[in-house]
Amino acid sequence: MPYIRTIRALIVEKEAEIARLEAELSAARAYVRLLENRLNAAGKRLQELPEESDDPIVAVRRVILEAGQPVFIDDILVALGRPMTRDSREQIRRLLLPWIRRGEVFTRPRPSMFGLTELERHR
Description:
The model has no long low-confidence stretch (mean pLDDT 85). Helix content is 72%, strand content 9%. The chain has five helices and three strands. It has a three-stranded antiparallel sheet.
């Protein structure tokens, strides 16, 4: 009955593989929870700033929130009452880039367009 032994060996091998994959899945879920917590913490830090704050990050976030979708940089500049110059565009890009790189608060769905991670999650 070598056939039965072979099948049992395959079952044991597959069960070991399933256990390994379940452990990987559990670790991946924990990692996603960690990332979500970081994202929520970053959003809360930004939300805790007073709406009347002079912080340009808060102003940009407010513009995007009011639009309810990603906004082109030129529209952000108009909403903030800033001139549409290369320097002012670059200032906004440099302001948002660290947040975008970390995947916190701001997104960049297309070139020259900025959105919010909190709006992306609701889609």
